Fold this protein.
Amino acid sequence: MDDIRIVGGRPLHGTVSIQGSKNAALPMMAASLLHRGVSVLKGCPRIADVFCMEEILQELGAQTWWEDHDLYMDCTQADKTTISGVYAGKMRSSVILLGAMLGRNKKGCLGYPGGCVIGERPIDLHLFVLRELGAEIEEGNSVISASCAALEGGDISFSRKSVGATEQGILAAVLARGETCLRNCAREPEIQWLCRYLRSMGARIEGDGGDCIRIRGVEGLDSGNMQVPPDRIVAGTYLCAAAATRGKITLLNPPEGELDAFLEVYRKIGGQYKVKSGKLIADGSGIYSPVPFLETEVYPGFPTDLQSPLMAVLITIPGESYIREKIFEDRYKAALEMVRMGAHIRIRGTDASVSGGYPLRGCTVEAEELRGGAALVLAALAADGVSYVRGYKYIRRGYEHICEDLNALGGIVEKDTGTRFYENIQLQKELTN
Ligand code: UD1
């Protein structure tokens, strides 16, 4: 029961609202551990990764409950300090709980973090910043144990920019003694949302959004209560869906000013958009131009998470496009599946050259990770005929209702409905093999 069936070839039209951001919600949930009481995240996405983080908080002793899309976390008794490998292995973001556990209880132990298979994904920068703040860390075969007498602020410079390690440093430093200066920080909007949330709880943080973040440690934090911002990657994915099918869509609550690099590319390929009364109205019907060269970069550059969704657009545009993936070294698995649909893409290491405009035909393809999986759904929407995207479990890690949203826009996208569906997959396989 892990597949999506898509009937392609129909331009998307209509209006859709954007769910809360996964990458903002997860560190905000970790931050909630720093208050010994109830915090609430409003408009929290009900996605698999959030549920996994919720279960981890419960394992630590928190009580959690939902009221519609508002997630309540009572961390009064969340004083356990071990996260079992079964959770940590499921989700990479679990690693940032190490900083929060150290801040709260001066120790923490977790299995090695998992996550999407998009490259090596080391955690050296996470451990570096914790050590710099005074933690002793033992790296065992399957678990990492961290402890400290007290965390002490310091002047710490990252050797390269990392979203997660920056968040780790912030979470550990807010309750540390003295002042911390984190240099060469990542600047992604989700880091700013984390800092806004922590400031609303009483933390003293300045400079987020820039390279250098200053944190003055405080004794304790008050309860958190904040709206999770709209998900910029989901917004970009839906804009790509409309672009790949040459449709026109309106986003009801687009992220503000967080999609600029993407929208610049969208305009260059011939898409048009305007922001009116808080809505983003996008017209992809006239898209015609390939992208001669595009690199993924740290924020404010083009986001790596939209590289695969954009690929699903580029394969529909006649001409040569070229992408260089600079953040993760193994992020073209979905592109190889698009080739099975008829796309002409050549991969050499971190570079992909796309010869767009060849007919795409529906077939059975395999998602292996979150954003790539969503991109395959978009490619299927642009293809002729019926496609089956296997591996819905990856997609629902980050998309709350991708099928419903795309259906509301006029696509035909359905989750596995049982036997008939599997029979169709078998049939489709026989036809494509
Ligand atoms: C976050 C996002 C993810 C996004 C990525 C880049 C979350 C939950 N996930 O992931 O969706 O694709 O930012 O925008 O917010 N690195 C190291 N050592 C480390 C940590 C990272 O070498 O200790 C490397 C990574 O392998 C990668 C690069 O730094 O090549 C960037 O990774 P990072 O910014 O840390 O991404 P995540 O926080 O894992």
Q: What stands out?
A: Residues 22-227 form a domain with the UDP-n-acetylglucosamine1-carboxyvinyl-transferase; Chain fold (CATH 3.65.10.10). Residues 419-423, 429-433 have pLDDT under 50 and may be disordered.
